[in-house]
Amino acid sequence: MSQNNSTNVCVDIREELEAEMVDVYFPVIVYLSLFMMFGIIGNVFTFYIYCYKFEISTTQMFVVALSVCDLLTCAICIPFDIVLLHHSFTFSSDIVCRLMVFFVAIVVISSGFIVFMIAIDRYRLVCRPLEEQISFENSKKILLSLILLSTFLSSPMLLLHSQGNRLVRQCGNIGEICSLTKSWQRTVFPFVYYIIGVTSWLLIFIVLMILYSLIAIRIAEIDKVKKYRLSQVLKFSSIASQFDEGEDEETPPSIPKFRCVRRHSLHPTQTNFIFFVITLLWVTSYVPHFISIFWKLSVENFYDTVTQSDQQLSAFLLLSYYPNCAINPYVYGLCNRQFRVELRDLFHNIRALGRK
Q1: Residues 201, 286 contacting (CB under 8 angstroms)
Q2: Which of 80, 204, 275, 306 counts the most CB atoms within 10 A of its CB?
Q3: Which of 56-60, 123-127, 231-235, 299-303 has the lowest mean pLDDT?
């Protein structure tokens, strides 16, 4: 009888601690919920517009793939982590823990590879326009290969994360949590795995910055040549008009043509700027994540050792890559005029259907 009472008391204590941790994690939960909501909405519109409103191209294929990854992140991965924050003492399913962490890793790594391929595609289009480009069909094969590679690279997560126990005051390790596997945490394997991850991230960051720097230099050169040619044409038109007064009335209509050419020439620059911003967001979003990972690896029994405020901070840092997935579609909207036009037309059509 006394043993049953003791068990019930421990269960009550565990539930109280979990409710207390939900309050601690509440800012993180709200933060994730907002990005989840805006991310789902934004990525659905991005997927639809790039799939059905834009011309079929390699760039379009990569953008659609990135929006799918971002949508999966916002619709599945973020809710999973919200569940983990709600069940920091009572997460009992080892299979769900391993599979979901594995799935999150696949989606996140795939997103990184796609961002990298977008940079390569932009570099080839701008800096190597006369060479053979990545075809639409080849882009599909590349994406499939990237997903398979991401799956392979994510497979260690099936071992590194599992359902484990955590301390519940005087009741012992009766708490259940999905976190780094304690048996592996005592080995060098997790540290080596994440060191390889950080090194790969740094190399990708360096390559991406080099590619976009070369793209920026090339675009500046192209713009310089275009401005020079435009000034020569305008100079020639001005000289010609001095010899033939009859040309004066025909000259103004020619000016909009030059403006049209200039406006059209801005599209590649805007597109490259969009992808540069997305790349920068992706790269910077992982700095806090890796800080949190190595913080956890350096502290044995992290959740039983650190304070509640440290656990809250760790959660913020660990999940720092999620906002990037929600922000991407809004970067398209702010920086891409064609995207805004298509989105406006879509809303007009929806409104028109609602009136019928």
Answers
A1: yes
A2: 275
A3: 231-235
